[in-house]
Amino acid sequence: MEEQIEVKELDNVVVHFSGDSGDGMQLAGNIFTTVSATVGNGVSTFPDYPADIRAPQGSLTGVSGFQVHIGAGKVYTPGDRCDVLVAMNAAALKMQYRHCKPNGTIIIDTDSFGQRDLQKAEFRSDDYLGEMGIDPDRVVACPITKMVKDCLADTGMDNKSMLKCRNMFALGLVCWLFNRDLTLVNNYLEKKFKKKPAIAEANIRVVQAGYDYGHNVHASVPNTYRVESAVKEPGRYMDITGNKATAYGLMAAAERAGLRLFLGSYPITPATDILHELAKHKSMGVTTVQCEDEIAGCASAIGAAFAGALAATSTSGPGICLKSEAMNLALIDELPLVIVDVQRGGPSTGMPTKSEQTDLLQVLYGRNGESPMPVIAATSPTDCFDAAYNACKIALEHMTPVVLLTDAFIANGSSAWKLPNIEELPEIHPHFVTEEQKYKYTPYKRDPETLARYWAIPGTEGYTHILGGLEKDGETGSISTDPENHDKMDRLRWDKVARIPVPDLKVLGDEKDADLLIVGFGSSYGHLYSAMEELRAKGHKVALAQFKYVNPLPKNTAEVLARYKKVVVAEQNLGQLAALLRIRINHFAPYQYNQVKGQPFVVSELVTAFEKLLKAPLPKEESGTFYTKILQ
């Protein structure tokens, strides 16, 4: 039997863990991801949490999923469909089977497929595999619950505690399937449960039991798999989520600028992990305050910025609504503040655990008066570090609040990240007052090149000043209602943002002769890039331009977009970037591909839609409304 099992080498593979929200699928997925990143694989993950705080056990609405794509080289998305599906109960199989490839392997816990479980999952019969059209030969049907209890019978653990280890059995089985070294898993568990050695030992024992089960019975599969690592740039790597990368980017910027970091925040899904992470780093000079509400979180950060700290506040879409008044205070006071918006499904409370790109126009225009703010959109979990760092640099050097857009997909998702050398990061020079301005300082005296005002720290002799929400005279800093002064100040604030230097828009793929240019912003980068590469592999001429800097737009934006006969703007909203580009660029009328499902794009769906657009004839002349160019 040992000779019949073949080890196949793959370039990439997708594994999807699913079960009840209390089944530990996120932990199992995170451990498998960390182990894969440790051995040098490229990784991309997508944790998919249920919207219910605690749905009834075994219910369809309570299913929690974690998908990880591992590859020999760099991977750009968590994958459309999985090669291996772990379904810990009947509801998980019912809800997540759509994510499985037709020939994928399915691992189930048969102890969670009783009659009551099937009823909760709304199966009509006991033949749940036949009802879903699943070939039984693809299914590894294992009594996981019973085997875990048998494995831990001599530990003295209660039944509830033993059941919490079921996820580790599934993890062990997956590790066998992909030839993973359990030493790395054990090291992770020992570190995680360092203060609870008995729990660590129980989980390690169960992981080994799952691995041994696969090894001994060969788990009904004809072969196991190995994903070898391509040569990577030497350095220290870690598996990092977007929220953690954002926190690290803020800390690195504070260190580079020689300032204390202050975060004023109010807990909100899916941004709370930024507050949690920064709260761990008091030794790094980080101050965190959990405020009583959203506007207080932003207002406390404005106070910290006035006092000379690198100030930030973190939230999601509903919090941006509530913070908007305070954000405008930071704008008229021209104080350096970073506002992190981890976008989620809306409107209103919407879908707190789901991901969208629907806050773009809100952060650009959702405040009273002329209220220009720079907007940066991170493109991946690891890019959250660079985006946060650059947001801080712009805020401190140009004396302005800056919005950093991430979203639930990249905030909770993770990738392998090479730790940077902080000395190699771009220098940050806060725009402080000069010695020559002492006793002559007025708060809105500006740098003639950048139009940034000078930052004076309260209590510094010779730089006494007052800021506030009322319009000020540009020369004296006194309250002013003069029409000409107000017009001048509005134009100065707008021009200051417009002058901020940002990198040119880069075109990937068939830059010179593409028949179609795909345009996106932020977190859709990986999916759009993968779609472009699939289309090019089919012989199509396709290019991609992904916006990271949305305000100000790159200087070459109009020139780039004018090069191509067909341009499609793809975004997870109903056309917000497309609308902005129409406003800013004369005669620009792109095609649109829009989805607001609370889920990332599916690459195969993008390829199908763009291929139809490529084959469609160019219209002889534009007519009708812009709705005629929205891809259905």
Please characterize this protein's 3D structure:
Strands 11-10-12-13-15-14-20 form a seven-stranded mixed beta sheet, with helices on both faces. With 632 residues, the protein is α/β, with parallel strands linked by helices. Strand 10, helix 11 and strand 11 (286-290) form a beta-alpha-beta unit. The chain has four domains: 5-224, 3-Layer(aba) Sandwich (Pyruvate-ferredoxin Oxidoreductase, domain 3), CATH 3.40.920.10; 238-422, Rossmann fold; 430-500, no CATH class; 505-629, Rossmann fold (3-Layer(aba) Sandwich), CATH 3.40.50. Helices cover 36% and strands 19% of the residues. The longest helix has 21 residues, at 197-217. The model has no long low-confidence stretch (mean pLDDT 93). Residues 514-579 form the Pyruvate:ferredoxin oxidoreductase core domain. GO terms for molecular function: oxidoreductase activity, acting on the aldehyde or oxo group of donors. Keywords: Oxidoreductase. Pfam families: PFOR_II, POR, POR_N. InterPro entries: 2-oxoacid/accept_OxRdtase_asu, PFOR_II, Pyruvate:ferred/Flavod_OxRd, Pyrv/ketoisovalerate_OxRed_cat, Pyrv_Fd/Flavodoxin_OxRdtase_N, Pyrv_flavodox_OxRed_cen, THDP-binding, Transketo_C/PFOR_II.
